[in-house]
Amino acid sequence: MALPKNSAAAARRAKLDEMRRAEVARERRNKIITIVVCALIFVVLAGATTFFLFTVKGEEKKQEAAKKAPISGEKSWDKLTQNHVAQPVNYPMTPAVGGDHAQAWMNCNGDVYEKEVRQENAVHALEHGAVWITYTDKATPDDVKSLGEQVKKTPYTLMSPHAKQDSPITLSAWGKQLTVDSASDPRVNAFLTKYVQGPQTPEPGAACTNGLSA
Predict the structure, then answer these.
(1) What residue ranges do the domains of the chain occupy?
(2) Separation CA 106–CA 94 (nearest Å)
(3) Phi, psi of 143 (to 5 degrees)
(4) Residue 4: which pLDDT band, with cuts at 50, 70 and 90?
């Protein structure tokens, strides 16, 4: 038996209403899921960013602390003169770490010299923020090779033999000096980290090229 027209129309409207309600409910659920997912992504990203920033800041603090911390065994000199002179200088320490020096500097862009260099020119390189590594025949060939490789990849450094120093290996910066027996001594890296273009530098950023190469 067929339904009256009014009843059939009412049934269709009811069906359409039910479908619309289901669609609205589905859209609502999708919106809620999207909001929840976005919130979770935001929380994760915010947490990761915060963790990264804290990690970076913590590492920066460690590096700053390492630069400020004294290095065991290092010696310091202050009130060093900075005049350019033509004559040899009688330095009170060996190797020299500062004072009057030659007009020309030794190239110190990771330069490794096989022969001794004039202290007056090397001191000028220290004035520019370089670290000068020197060694005697008491240093082992492996240590000399290792230090040379490290210097070659480190701007604002130079290396040369120095027969008159007491220690097998000496590291010098302007007003600072450290002696070690081996290239594997962790203080070598500490000294380079602290004093290559470090706070002791009288002329930070000055050239380490276009000077003397021999």
Answers:
(1) 1-69, 75-195
(2) 17
(3) -65, -45
(4) low
The 8 Å CB, 24+ separation contacts for 30-35 are none
pLDDT of residue 85: 98
Find residue 178's DSSP bridge partners: 171
Q: Roughly how many angstroms between the first and final C-alpha of the chain, as a whole number? A: 115
Report pLDDT digits (tens) over 113-136.
999 999 999 999 999 999 999 999
In the numeric block, which tokens belong to residue 54? 């804290």
Distance (Å, whole) CA 112 – CA 114: 7
Class of domain 75-195: alpha beta
Strand pairing report for 176-180 and 75-76: antiparallel
Report the alpha-carbon distance of residue 182 to residue 169 in Å, rounded: 7
Overall pTM surpassing 0.90 (yes/no): no
Q: Is 60 exposed, middle or buried (0-12, 13-18, 19+ CB in 10 A)?
A: exposed
